[in-house]
TrEMBL record:
Keyword Kinase: no
Family designation: Belongs to the peptidase U62 family.
Pfam families documented for this protein: PmbA_TldD_1st (PF01523), PmbA_TldD_2nd (PF19290), PmbA_TldD_3rd (PF19289)
GO terms under cellular component: cytosol
Molecular function via GO: metallopeptidase activity
Highest taxon listed in the record's lineage: Bacteria
Organism (species): Candidatus Thermokryptus mobilis
Name this polypeptide is given: TldD protein
Amino acid sequence: MMFSYPEILEPSQMKKVIERALSKGGDFAEIYFEYRIELAINLSENKIKSLNYGISPGLGIRVISGSKTGYAYTDDFRFEKILEVADVASYVADSGIGNKAVNLEARKRVEQNFQVERPIYLLDIDKKIEWLWRANDSARSYDGRIKQVDINYFESARYFWIANSEGVCVESDDSLFRIFITSVAISDGLREMGVSYLGGRYGYDFLLENPPEKFGVDSAKQAVSKLYAKPAPAGNFPVLIKSGWGGVLVHEAVGHGLEGDFNRKGISVYSGKLGQKVCSELVTIIDDGTVPNSRGSVAIDDEGTPTQRTVLIENGVLKNYMLDKLNAKLLNLESTGNGRRESYRHYPLPRMRNTFIDAGKDDPSDLIKSIKFGIYAKSLGGGQVDIVSGNFVFEINEGYLIENGEITHQIRGANLIGNGPEVMRKVIGVGNDLEIEKGTGTCGKDGQYVPVGVGQPTILVSEMTVGGTQV
């Protein structure tokens, strides 16, 4: 990492802080230090509307006692203040006097499994602003009906280290960026929106290889094309969901239900079903923290556990949950490296990294040809899901009719309505075109937001409920 950060604790001080945190009898204690730099730029209404730059260093201390967690944090790095933070976290324990000695390993640096040359956060702000202007101008010049263009740029660079009562002492760093472009087309009382985006854990060369004009035009083209879209039919139809961002449905409707805390508490539809068939034998679902350049890829999770590729569902059979240290221990399982937190102000939760359906054997064009009448969901928008029941509703951002084996008219106003496990049981085709969308996913849970990747090949569901405007 190419920026300086404060060295706030010597190894002997770390040891004292952890022992202080365990002084009331906790089972486990941890120090998490983070130094983060963030930049956000908004270009809207043909002007730079906002530019925010911030540096955020801080430290959090966590104590676990049974199933309870005590957490406290500070950005005041005086040693006596850090000891006070340890005292606050320690109050979660109630077993009396603690006497655990801690022996920390020498701090070990853990690198990503992929290289990032010339991180984007080192690039001059002027060059980033120029990129946004070029995207803005290309979108506006595409068609006179484009009346509004909004571009949001965000980047983050982070250095962090973790030391805990198990002797672990590791450090790592990462950086990422995201650009999100929205164009609005207005004509004859209709107002339609198109979006395009890019990003991930890339370096400056990635921006050079991806001209802003293309992404500006992509968003404008989508908005204009939707002006001609027909009202979506309503009913139950076969649905073909495109590769890549279509995986957001799996993330929301299935992925959250496979997170360890929901299953440890017995409130997920997948609770107690390890080893059982839970969906079509064509479906294998993976959560992988090692995908090159993806937003959800990390060298270690926010508890210091090395990242890995975790098979959650294999050929329809539930194999594993996504686990952090706490929930793994309470379930008598091993952590899968899914302990993630938004910042030093938060304690880690079991969260997704890059979650996707693995590639199948079908040619996507053959899947299209197999449909007499159905829906092609080329791009999904926002959605809602109930973790307990698995029920969901998702907007189709860009969709088309499939008639007699061919993609025909574009449709608007369509939603997909269903139940995650049920839909996964109705998968009758899985394409060979796996794509992992690396650039834009952000996942919220319990008020914390972390970057993620989603993905899938093209998949065919035999029947889904489509909420439209024509019956």
